[in-house]
Amino acid sequence: MKITGVVLAGGRSSRFGKPKMFELHNGKPFYEHSLDALKQNHLSPLVISTNEELVGQFKREDVRLIVEEESSSYQGPLYAIHNVMSRIDDPDWFFILSCDIPFVTAEFVEEMIGFANDSEADAVVPVQGGRIQPLMALYHKRTIENQEKMLAADEHKLEHLLNDLHVLTIPFPEDDPAFININHAKDWNKDY
Fold first, then answer.
1. Where is the MobA-like NTP transferase domain (predicted)?
2. Is 137 annotated as a binding residue?
3. Has 90 been labeled as part of a binding site?
């Protein structure tokens, strides 16, 4: 089973006020915590999906940068996932992580991969505290047709994509720190 590791880092960070993927935690930008969790599990290739405005700010040489096509409006994560999956042919699965989860661990990634092994599911998605987490999930290559259908219908919600797929959900405890998502600058001022 071949898995590509993907970090989504092309959002506008409008709620945060500046590109949050470059905020530091333990001396590393947020996005590197996601990348390292994937890299420690030997996923290949490692990909950062970003936009033209941010591409020059990523300083990792062990990743492939895939730049979203310029658009007058932000297209969202479903578009970014499809953009990556349509450009890389050989993996069976794509492990998608957002760039704003600085507490994600290699152990979380390893556990999720274990569930994808021998799974008939189209997606393996964690559920934490009753909330589905589609940006910390694995998507099988065969889901690209469903993505194309949704994007053609101008539907961009990942939750709607998941409704169209055979999804294996994996429960995680509500207090699992891997899921701490930083959306606002005030969130990051807390004492982590």
1. 5-163
2. no
3. no
